[in-house]
Amino acid sequence: MTSAQNAIFKALSDPTRRAIFEGLCRGGSQSVVSVTQAAGISQPAVSKHLGILKNAGLVSDQPQGRQTFYSPNVGALSQLTDWTTEMTAFWNARFDALDDLLKRMDQ
Amino acid sequence: MTSAQNAIFKALSDPTRRAIFEGLCRGGSQSVVSVTQAAGISQPAVSKHLGILKNAGLVSDQPQGRQTFYSPNVGALSQLTDWTTEMTAFWNARFDALDDLLKRMDQ
DNA sequence: CAGTTTCATAACCGATTGGCTATGCGTTAT
DNA sequence: ATAACGCATAGCCAATCGGTTATGAAACTG
């Protein structure tokens, strides 16, 4: 669990990778050449980034003849929101406990 | 904007930093010594991590005599959820457009 | 069949990272 | 006043990272 979570956080920590992912969300499924042109870096670098995103479950690849199309897995982003809501819940629980304490002290 | 966003993603990409942040959310404001004991690494390493979290706006420090207490800024996590909802919106917009197209073709 | 396109992998390189120890400075305790 | 504590900074090091060029394997094209 945590390992998949870690892969997602790591994958999205690089601005180039976030830009690639955003490009796929905006433009839909795209070939490596297409992603490369948008990214402004070499094709091998893009392939490496796509590999990391794929490994994290953030994108899927659909080979089609000699080109491979990549599409985003927006569902994987739930790992992110799940973590943030969990952290917020932990933090809020402390205030709830404090509220209870203050109420009890009030009586 | 994007620079602050980048700092947050980078800060949370390290599992040790996420653990420290989670510890602060769970346990509330804590001194550096307390965080260090929980983290299981050296105090200077913890100070560096806390500095990065603070720089990203994820924690705040309250100096108090010779010790400094750190508390989480859960509000900063909205940057994360904002980005994910934006990506999801981009992706869904493509399906909405496809829906429209199909509906128009149906008529 | 020969040539081109598409992509992934390998090998390399400079920069960054995450850890450590050593140290210094301010604060509290004796 | 001296010692001990709490924290941050500096300097170091191995490991990882993000980019590059070179190369090769498939898949199309003519």
TrEMBL record, chains A, B:
Residue span, HTH arsR-type domain: 1-92
Keywords: DNA-binding, Transcription, Transcription regulation
PROSITE patterns for the chain: HTH_ARSR_2 (PS50987)
TM regions (residue ranges): none
InterPro entries linked: ArsR-like_HTH (IPR011991), HTH_ArsR_DNA-bd_dom (IPR001845), HTH_MetalResp_TranReg (IPR051081), WH-like_DNA-bd_sf (IPR036388), WH_DNA-bd_sf (IPR036390)
Domain of life the protein comes from: Bacteria
SUPFAM superfamilies on file: Winged helix' DNA-binding domain
Pfam families registered for this protein in UniProt: HTH_5 (PF01022)
NCBIfam families (alphabetical): HTH_metalloreg
PANTHER family: TRANSCRIPTIONAL REGULATOR, ARSR FAMILY, TRANSCRIPTIONAL REPRESSOR SDPR
Stated name of the protein: Transcriptional regulator
Species: Henriciella pelagia
Organism taxonomic ancestry: Bacteria, Pseudomonadati, Pseudomonadota, Alphaproteobacteria, Hyphomonadales
